[in-house]
Amino acid sequence: MTDLSADLVQQKQRLREKLRFRRKHFAANLDGMAQLAAFRALPAPLSERLAGHAVVGAYVAWGDEPDILPMFAGVAEAGALALPHHAARIDAMDFRRWRPGEPLEKGPWSTQQPADHAALVTPDIIFCPLVGFDRKGGRIGQGGGHYDRYFAAHSGALRIGIGWSVQEIDATPRESTDIALDAILTEQEFILCGDRL
């Protein structure tokens, strides 16, 4: 690892600590009604994409991440919803089909995921949780690189970041392996970051 990349890793880690603190306190101070209202409806450009029967990659909220599964109730009932799946504590991540009511299992990273036998699918649109973001599509994730590797291997999928508005920063430090988002959805707005939507 070069000094430059080591510095970027340290910058990102410092930002993660700061942004996780922000996210935790913001989510803790949201009243019940605001929590219920957040992330319940998709913006029009995304609704139009989903109307074309796209397979949607979402996630099960962990800790103080926004809970987005209610936005996809219709998609889930149609069998077009998929969640991240980790077979072990390795670099690879895939997506497995899931419907409400089906059991979820604790994965190797302590997140909830579909069972190992659930059908493997490739999402057309992926909604990923954020630790931090900027308006140019830069994202800071948990630090494992799972989403970046998946995005690189499946470049045709639209990439939508999900976060609370307090997680926004002016600019995210970027490494060559960081893949930009196409858009970001917060409880306040829908931010387009590229020209694919």
Automatic annotation (TrEMBL):
Top-level taxonomic group: Bacteria
EC number(s) recorded for this UniProt protein: 6.3.3.2
GO biological process, one term: folic acid-containing compound biosynthetic process
UniProt: ATP binding residues: 12-16, 139-147
Keyword ATP-binding (UniProt): yes
Reaction(s) the record says it catalyses: (6S)-5-formyl-5,6,7,8-tetrahydrofolate + ATP = (6R)-5,10-methenyltetrahydrofolate + ADP + phosphate
UniProt keyword annotations, A-Z: ATP-binding, Ligase, Magnesium, Metal-binding, Nucleotide-binding
Annotated positions binding substrate: 60, 65
Protein's name according to its UniProt entry: 5-formyltetrahydrofolate cyclo-ligase
Species of provenance: Sphingopyxis italica
